[in-house]
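Deviations from the work plan: none for this task. Representative record:
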Amino acid sequence: MSHPSASGEAAHGDGAMHEHHGSLRGYLTGFMLAAILTIIPFWLVMGHVIADTWLTIFIVLVLAVVQIFVHIRYFLHLDARSEGGWNLMALIFTAVLVIIVLGASIWVMYNENANMMPMSPQYRHHVQGK
Amino acid sequence: MNTTAIDSAASVPPEFLCREEAPPRNGTLLGFWIYLMSDCFIFASLFACNAVLGSNYAGGPTAAEVFDLPGLALNTALLLVSSVTFGFAMLEMARQNKRAMLGWLAVAGLLAAAFVGLEIHEFLGMIAEGAGPGRSAFLSSFFTLVATHGLHVTLGILWLIVLMVQTTKFGLNEANVRRLQCLSMFWHFLDLVWVGVFSYVYLIGVLR
């Protein structure tokens, strides 16, 4: 790759290998953000702060997604430049497939449960009798 | 067919969209990243299982009854601090400061070991209460997902010990630096997966 690396890094031979260590400030910023994004959902759930369960679930999910981006940015040091953009490509590809797998499974199985034929009392007795 | 048209087309130099060499020079880190993405699929399918089966209690204990949230908060903190201390080790590695790096790696490893210890303690407690993986579909999916993550952390600790011995014996040569960078990605990736576990499996599990 032709990253214009600083002369100090180029002296180590493989410039690309020394590019994404991050900095102390980066790790501490990531840690602070991750800690805040962890404390809020714990507080919401343990303290029963919001009466509406679905709203709480939604907020916890959103905070988790935000925290995942914080980890990617500050701990994994992933941006559009790392490995010439191939890392990001692989991540986007994975994210799309993961969303399809998770979203479709939940969607299909939710409908499966709703569309299940009700068990006849006779059969229910048979199952429980085993 | 008009042959002159073909000739003139062939004389135009081809134009490529990707002008740079692919794959990039430092292929190992990209390869390891793609492995992590495949690991992502394993966790995604286990998360999907948990999403589908998470409230099938089969008359057994519910998520709210078996999960210990203060213990979970401690576990989450251990893993997050472990992730950050591993980052500090990588900063020391960049400065070629081997002793400080080994020190931070040891701290990260011990924190992760405490995490695994607490998790095993939690599992054994649940099994003793009759909430083992065989009790209900909810518990099967819970144990499969969380134990898969725990197994990853355990193997990460093993890998960490091997690399600490390697670095002590052979120093921070190019191969060891590369291996430590891979382990660093693995370590941070497991913390990232844990965000999904504590948010979705535990916190939302308790709510629904």
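Helices of chain A lie at 7-10, 24-46, 53-75, 86-115, 121-129.
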